[in-house]
Design brief:
This protein is mostly helical. It is built from 25 helices and seven strands. It is rod-shaped and about 200 Å long. This is GB1/RHD3-type G domain-containing protein.
Length: 803
């Protein structure tokens, strides 16, 4: 049996496993008698890659079906065939795999080739990889995608075990093998590095899974003799490839692998249900746990120690490898709790930084110094707490968490700095508003020759004071010079904007201010006392002065003058509006060449500093004159009324006519003294009655109202006088005459009026509507004294009769 070749198809092209064929092969090859003393060699490679089956037949004296070169290149081997090598000890089983990337299966059907390759790698001790010489160094070589897939699956399904990969370079060229081998090994290493590895094999090297060997053979068709010689040399490598002691080692490794894997899984399962771990995990989710690293390390040490005790009698290499896997899996399981603890530590340090920074700023310490000290303190606390969190078994990188803390701190510093700067800026802006707004408004309302000089002085003083203290406050932030200059410049601009805003607000109310200024000057004298229009005042001159004052206010509010630049606004307004310029509505508007106000800009004044344009000034002045003409008219009417009330003489021509026409009658009175005495008595009585009745005051309200008022008061007064006379006569009959008294003082109309005002009013004789008659002329604005009552008149008449 040892010199005979037997073969069978293990798996057909459809993937069906031939159990009966395998049983027959085992009996024919005598595998049952070999025990574990056998080796498995398989070959894979692209379809028709210089004859895989041909190489096996020459190398192991098998009888696999070979491709007929005269029929062209096509698929020869379908599925997986196996045969016993002839003349090689120990027993060697050879498997011939279907070629990869064959056109018969199509470009997309790669499932079978991946499964067959993985099957060969799983059970083979040596895998021959047949490849073309010209594929070396090519990125898209035939076996590269297949090897990448096989490597990835091998790491997931099997633990590290040494399988020999013998790369057979076919049809080698003149390039020496020692030059081709490094390139091929580099390509294999790249494939290994690019494979996505499980966590347990992240750092596992290719050499822990495979022994990579490289050999090269000449072309079988062109150099058959050289091919035969080198194949014979290669055949010698397979004699006694597996010694009996090696078989024992393999058996021990297999047992150790299975048992250590079971122990590791058992300990990991116990770890996941450990009460101490569950309590620690629950606690760390709620908040920081003291001695976290020590407690977790203790739990891990316990289960790793149990593993060591139970696996101590197994193969050291397998035991160590499985322990490393157990430790890695356990650390992966508890890593989430470690991250949670790091999160608590970071939050605690960050909260401490925020509270320390707030307290430091409240104490008055500079912002930059406060942030430096607080950052240093919080990072030190984080690093100190980190020592209590670190697990001995793990070398976890905490730099990302620390960097996150630094980023959070820097972001908070930026936010607080921005808020503090905004707060500081707002505070100084409020101070400037309080220092400038109302004073500027007051200065503009009291516009005079030095208004803008006073505003400039106020603006510069308050701005420089604010900038000085603001710069001192900014020094604690340690800003760069550019930012510092920008903020102080913005504050200066804000101060200017306050003045500009207030100036524009007052300019919008210029007409109201002008009317107030006109009314103040027109209605008050130089001592600020209200004017009484007696007829002696020069209304024309007063009006001119009042309009000049209003025009001055208009000139002040027409433009801002914060830059010490001179302008001609006031002179232009005076020449055009006050000195007979084209201001009347009845006059035609002059052309822009002769009217300085026929423009939208002022000379030597920028548009940004213009508050009221020349055209607007002209319109405002016209409206101002219209609304103040009524006041002037009222003053003139008051003067005329005053003159009429105080002029009792007839016109001069009437006096001359009376003198000429009444000369004879006047001479007759002079020749007869009785006439003169009677006339004098009539004058005295008439004057007394006129003063008592205030006839002049009654007739000021009109002729008809005066006659009605006098007629209603005449009869009660006469009756009162008669009653007084009767009472006086009766009193003289009952009492002797008294010695003569000194004559009473002269009684004038004024004394009558004063006495009448001292007497208490009596309301039982006449209605209240007739007891007094005081009013104010709606046209002249002149106030008249209150009229006496009927009782007062009666008392005055009785006093006159007694005297």
């Amino acid at each position: 049996m040892g010199d005979e070749c037997c073969s069978t198809q293990l798996i057909d092209g459809d993937g069906a496993f031939h159990v009966e064929g395998l049983d027959g092969f085992i009996r024919a090859a005598g595998l049952a008698d070999c025990g574990l003393s056998y080796a498995v060699v398989s070959i894979m490679g692209p379809q028709s890659s210089a004859g895989k089956s041909t190489l096996l037949n020459h190398l192991f004296k098998t009888k696999f079906t070979e491709m007929d070169a005269f029929k062209g290149r096509s698929q020869t081997t379908k599925g997986i065939w196996m045969a016993k090598a002839v003349g090689i000890e120990p027993c060697t089983i050879v498997m011939d795999l279907e070629g990869t990337d064959g056109r018969e299966r199509g470009e997309d059907d790669t499932t079978f080739e991946k499964q067959s390759s993985l099957f060969a790698l799983a059970i083979s001790d040596v895998v021959l990889i047949n490849m073309w010489c010209h594929d070396i160094g090519r990125e898209q070589a035939a076996n590269k995608p297949l090897l990448k897939t096989v490597f990835q699956v091998m790491m997931r399904l099997f633990s590290p075990r040494k399988t020999t990969l013998l790369f057979v370079i076919r049809d080698k060229t003149k390039t020496p093998t020692e030059y081709l081998e490094p390139v091929l090994r580099e390509d294999i290493q790249k494939i290994w590095d690019s494979v996505a590895k499980p966590e347990a094999h992240k750092e596992t090297a290719l050499s822990e899974f495979f022994n990579v060997e490289v050999t090269a053979l000449p072309s079988y068709e062109e150099k058959e003799e050289q091919f035969e010689e080198q194949v014979a040399q290669l055949r010698q490598l397979f004699f006694h490839s597996i010694a009996p002691e090696a078989l024992l080692v393999i058996e021990e490794i297999m047992v150790a692998t299975v048992r250590c894997e079971e122990i590791a899984n058992e300990k990991l399962s116990h770890l996941t249900s450990d009460e101490g771990w569950l309590e620690l995990e629950t606690a760390v989710q709620s908040g920081p746990v003291s001695d976290f690293g020590r407690k977790l390390s203790s739990i891990l040490d316990f289960y790793l120690s149990e593993y060591d005790m139970e696996a101590i009698y197994f193969d050291e290499g397998v035991r160590t490898a499985k322990r490393q896997q157990l430790e890695s899996r356990a650390l992966n399981y508890v890593h989430s709790a470690f991250l949670a603890m790091l999160g608590h530590l970071r939050s605690k340090a960050f909260d401490k930084f925020k509270s320390d920074l707030e307290l430091s700023l409240k104490s008055g310490k500079g912002f930059a110094a406060s942030t430096r000290d607080c950052i240093q303190s919080s990072m030190l606390e984080f690093d100190t707490g980190l020592k209590d969190v670190v697990v001995r078994h793990a070398d976890w990188d905490v730099s990302k968490v620390r960097s996150k803390l630094q980023r959070d701190v820097e972001a908070h510093v930026t936010s607080v700095r921005s808020a503090k700067l905004d707060e500081l800026k707002a505070a100084y802006e409020n101070k400037l508003t309080e220092a400038l707004a109302e004073p500027v408004e007051s200065l503009l309302e009291a516009a005079g020759y030095d208004t803008w000089a006073s505003i400039r002085k106020l603006y510069r003083r308050e701005t420089e004071n604010a900038i000085s203290t603001f710069s001192t406050s900014l020094s604690g932030f340690e800003l760069d010079q550019g930012t510092h200059n920008t903020m102080t410049s913005n504050l200066r601009d804000y101060a200017r904007s306050i003045v500009e805003k207030k100036a524009r607000e007052e300019a919008g109310k210029v007409l109201i201010h002008m009317k107030d200024r006109f009314s103040t000057v027109f209605s008050s004298d130089k001592d600020s006392m209200p004017r009484v229009w007696t007829g002696k005042e020069d209304i024309r001159m007063i009006t001119k002065d009042a309009r000049a004052a209003a025009l001055k206010l208009l000139a002040v509010m027409s433009a801002m003058r914060l830059d010490d630049k001179q302008d001609k606004i006031e002179s232009a307004l005076k020449s055009s509006l006050l000195d007979g310029g084209p201001v009347s509505q009845n006059r035609s508007v002059t052309s822009s060449s002769t009217d300085p106000l026929a423009s939208s800009t002022w000379e030597e004044v920028s548009p940004s500093n213009t508050l009221i344009t020349p055209v607007q000034c002209k319109s405002i002045w016209r409206q101002f004159k219209t609304e103040t003409e009524y006041t002037v008219t009222q003053a003139i009417s008051a003067q005329e009324a005053h003159r009429r009330n105080n002029n009792w003489l007839p016109p001069p021509w009437a006096i001359v006519a009376i003198a000429i026409l009444g000369f004879n009658e006047f001479m007759m009175f002079l020749r007869n003294p009785l006439y003169v005495l009677g006339l004098f008595l009539l004058f005295v009585i008439s004057y007394a009655i006129g003063a008592q009745f205030d006839i002049v005051g009654e007739f000021r309200h009109g002729l008809l109202s005066g006659l009605l008022s006098l007629s209603a008061r005449f009869l009660p007064t006469v009756m009162n006088i008669l009653r007084k006379l009767s009472d006086e006569g009766q009193r003289q009959q009952h009492h002797p005459p008294q010695p003569p008294q000194p004559p009473p003082p002269n009684i004038t109309a004024q004394s009558f009026r004063v006495q009448s005002q001292r007497q208490p009013p009596s309301s039982n004789l006449v209605p209240d509507s007739l007891s007094s008659s005081s009013s104010i002329s709606s046209n002249s604005g002149i106030e008249y004294a209150s009229q006496p009552t009927w009782n007062q008149l009666g008392e005055i008449d009785s006093e006159v009769s007694t005297s």
